[in-house]
Design brief:
49% helix; homodimer; Isopropylmalate Dehydrogenase; 13 helices; alpha/beta; eleven-stranded mixed β-sheet; 2 domains; 13% strand; 358 residues
Chain lengths: 358, 358
Amino acid sequence: MPHKLAPVAVDAMGGDHAPGAIVQGAINAARNGLAIILVGPEERVRDELRRHHAAKSLPIEVHHAAEVVEMDDHPGQAMRRKKQNSIRLSFELVKAGKACGMVSAGNSGAVMAGAMFVLGRIDGVERPAICSVVPALKGNPLMLDMGAVVDCKPSYLVQFALMGELYSRKVAGVHKPRVAILSNGEEETKGTDLTRAAAAALRKSSIGFVGYCEGRDILTGEFDVIVTDGFTGNVALKTMEGAVKVVTELLKRSLYSTAISKLGGLLAKKALDGMKKRMDWREIGGAPLVGVNGIGFISHGRSDALAIECAIRRVRDAARSHFVEEIAAAVAPTEALVEAARAEAAQHAARHVAPTEA
Amino acid sequence: MPHKLAPVAVDAMGGDHAPGAIVQGAINAARNGLAIILVGPEERVRDELRRHHAAKSLPIEVHHAAEVVEMDDHPGQAMRRKKQNSIRLSFELVKAGKACGMVSAGNSGAVMAGAMFVLGRIDGVERPAICSVVPALKGNPLMLDMGAVVDCKPSYLVQFALMGELYSRKVAGVHKPRVAILSNGEEETKGTDLTRAAAAALRKSSIGFVGYCEGRDILTGEFDVIVTDGFTGNVALKTMEGAVKVVTELLKRSLYSTAISKLGGLLAKKALDGMKKRMDWREIGGAPLVGVNGIGFISHGRSDALAIECAIRRVRDAARSHFVEEIAAAVAPTEALVEAARAEAAQHAARHVAPTEA
C-alpha cells in the first residue's frame, strides 16, 4: 500500500488569473479527493473559497503568506527580500514535509529561485533544470532544459539527459525512454562543441540514448526525452507556440472565407476546438523542476482552473513516484560524466593552443 | 537604365526532383524572359529540355558538368575531389561574370562550401551566413544564420545583423529594417553570454537594432531581420516546419471527422490549400548566402519547378540590387564591432580568472 501523501501546496497568488482561477482549480482537485494547502494572504484566499462556494468539508487548508512575487520582480531578490512570499512559503511546506510538492503559475524565474533557495539542489546535480511536457502527435515527450540554464557545459546536458530519463521512466511511466539531444542535423558530425561532447558521453551511458534529433521531431513523439540547453529549449518552445498560433489563425481565416456562411463557421470552430484539445497545454499540467531537493511545478502564467487542477494531479503523481530520491543515484559520476568532463577539458585546452579563428 | 544582367546559373542536378523539376523550373523562368545557364551533364540536361518541349528560342544555355555532389558527400571533400561538379562549376560561372548568380537545391553544406571555395568571403567578413526568408503573417522577415556557423562569437552575430540589414534594405526593399536578436526573453538581462555581448555592440551601431525577440515573434512579421547563431536558427526553422506539419495534420483529422461527409472534406481541402499557399516555402525561392563574394541561393531539397522558378527570380533581384558590392562597407569595423571584440576579450578573461562553476 502506498504511504499516505501529504497535501499539495498551491501558490494561490501566481499567474494572470490568480487568485480566482487558482482557488477554483484547487477546489476542483479537492472535490476529486486531493488534499490541498492554498498559500497566500489568508483573508483574500478565504474570501475566494467562499466566493466559489467551497464546502467546509473539502480537504483544503490555507497557509498565510503576506507577500506576493510580481512578474517583474527579480527572482533572487524577491526570495531574499520578500521572506513571506507565497512561492517561498510553498517550498518551505515541501521542505518541512507538510506538503508533498508545490505548484505555482507565477514568475517562473522566482519559482526556480525559490526551489534553489529553500530546497537546494540534490547532491551531485550541477544545475537543476525545467522540464516541459510537449503535446506531441503521440505520447508526451519531455524536453529539458526550458530556460533555467542558458549557458551550458557538456556535463550539464549529460545530467539533464539522466534526470529526464529517470523522470520519463518513473513518473511518465515510459518503459525504456528514447533520449535524444536536440541538434541541427541527425549525423554525429552535426551540432556544436557542446552537443558533440555531451553526445559522446551519453553514448557511453547505460540509458537509451539514440543520438541527435531535430526541431521537426519535437512534436512527432518519436523521442521520449529531448535534451537541450535552456536557451535553445526556450527558443524552440516559443517558436512552436508561435507557429501553432499563426497556423491556427491562418486556417481560421481561410475556413471562414471559403466556407458557406454559418456551416463553415461551425465546422471551423469544431475543427479548431478538436485540435486545441489535443494540443492543450492546460491538460499537461505544468513543467516539473528536476534536480532540486523536492517537487516543484511551474504552471503556465495563463493558467485557468483546469490547468491548475491538472498540475496538482501531476504534483501528486510525481510525489508518488519518489523520483526525487533516485536522482542522486542517476547523476552519480559514471563513465559518461567522467568522459564529458574530459571532453570539456580537451576543448578548453584546444581553444588556448589553437584559436578557432581561421 | 539598369545594365543588362548575365544569366542565372542553375544547378540542374541538385535536389530530390532533379533534373526534371529543375529543368522545368528553368524553362518556366526562361519563358518569362529570364536568361538561364543550366549546369549539369550535358546530354542528360538536353534530354530533359527535349522531354519538356523547350523551344530552341528560349534563352537557355547548357554548361557541361561531369560530376554531381550527392546528399551524403562531405561538402569540403566534394568540392576538392569532384572538380567538375555542378555546384562548383555554377560558382565558377558566377566568378567569371558569365552568370549573375547561382541557385542549387542540392546538398546545402556543399553549396556553402562551393561558395567559399570558388567565390571566397568578402573582405572583412568573418563568417558568411545562410539567410532564410520566413513566411510570416505580414512581410517576409529574414532570419540568419540558418546553419552555416553553429559555434558563434559575438562579432559574428554583429556581422550577421549588419549583412541582414543591408539585404533587407537593398533586396527586400524594407525602408528601415527592424533588426532583433533571437533570445529566450525580451529583457536585456536575458540571453546567453553570446547574445548579450552582440546586443550590447549592436545598440551602439547605426542600424535599427530593436533588441531581443522571442521564438513566438518569428512568424508575426514584427521584425524584419532576426539574428541568431546557425545552431539555434536551424533548430527554430525546423521546429517551425514540424509544428506547422503537426497542426495541419491534426486539423485535417478533426475537419474530416467532424464535418458532414463530402462537404466537410471539400471545405477542409480549400482551407488547407489557402493556408498552404500563404506559408508556401516554394514561393519564397530559397535562402541567399551573405558574406561571400557573389550571389548564391540554396533552394529547398524538395524543390519543384515552381520553387526553382521563384528562386531564379530571387537571384535576379539580388543581382540587380548590387548588395554584394556594399557588404564590405556594411561590415567595416565600426564602434559596434570594436565593442563586440572588447566584450569577447573580457568574457574570455573572466572565464580564466573566475570559472563560472558556482
